[in-house]
Amino acid sequence: MTITSVDQYRAKPDDQIKLIEWDPNDKSAFPAGKSQGKKALKPLTARLEALQEVMWAEQKHKLLVVVQGMDTAGKDGTIRHVFTGVNPQGVRVASFKVPTPIELGHDYLWRVHQKTPGLGEIVIFNRSHYEDVLVVRVHDLVPEERWSKRYEHINAFEKLLADEGTTILKFFLHIDLDEQKGRLQARLDDPSKHWKFNVGDLKERALWQDYMAAYEDVLNKTSTDHAPWFIVPANRKWLRNLIISTVIVETLEGLAMNFPEPQDDLDEVVIN
Ligand code: ADP
Q1: CATH code assigned to 7-253
Q2: At 227, which helix (H) or strand (E)?
Q3: For the chain, domain boundaries
Q4: Residue 204 CA: which ligand 1 atom is closest?
Q5: What is the Å distance from ligand 1's center to 114 Cα?
Q6: pTM of the full predicted structure?
Q7: Confidence grade of residue 134 (pLDDT, cut at 50, 70, 90)
Q8: E strand segments, 190-258
Q9: Which residues lie closer than 8 Å to 201 by C-beta, 6 or more apart?
Q10: 71 CB under 6 A from ligand 1?
Q11: Ligand 1 close to Cβ of residue 103 (< 6 A)
């Protein structure tokens, strides 16, 4: 069983997205439920592994996957599950934290550009340049006059990457306040998850509506044909993984990649 069209999750450039209208519990794409959903992920994981091998061998394409979401939305879990089995040679994760003084001394895209994929590579951004119009906006880290110009910069930056051969996919992991409460409580209740619990996350949680407004602007201003956003209903982890895997596999299939031709006529090679 496969998932029905994932295109329904793509933020179209002309949409007027209001996140309240996007249900984080929506499972219409895969009504069969969790155990079937987990089963359906397996062939996709295998397919992704095979596609990445060709991509790395061919050294012709580059894939950038941006993962954004509120705390506990599942950024780490998505990366772990969706990319299970891929060859670490050719796949990198770049995590963007609070900028260092040196990073702050440059423009905000400086640290980001350095981490973009080279030929044959898949790079996953765990947080990204979008923090510069999310946390930066919500906390007034720079004046509005500065952050409001960044959507335009970001679109131009992503266009540059796309024009130079990078395929870009961006995923917003959409959970709701209740789901976050449950996940935070689970971290609190389980000592093995305490390392993930950050009291500062509660401060961000109190600013939920401000973040949703900032995300809506991101989704409305920066979802383009060459760098689309997908709004992933992420309250159900298995469905989140299934949707994201499907989008990535379908996108890589669309690149029509092939193993490179051997340099010599191997039929004539004799190994003594
Ligand atoms: P995680 O991504 O797992 O939550 P951390 O707990 O270390 O990792 O959080 C990283 C923090 O860095 C987040 O609070 C995020 O908002 C912040 N951050 C990332 N980029 C920026 C930025 N450009 N400016 C300010 N803060 C940022």
Answers
A1: 3.40.50.300
A2: none
A3: 7-253
A4: 14
A5: 18
A6: 0.97
A7: very high
A8: 229-233
A9: 71, 72, 184
A10: yes
A11: no
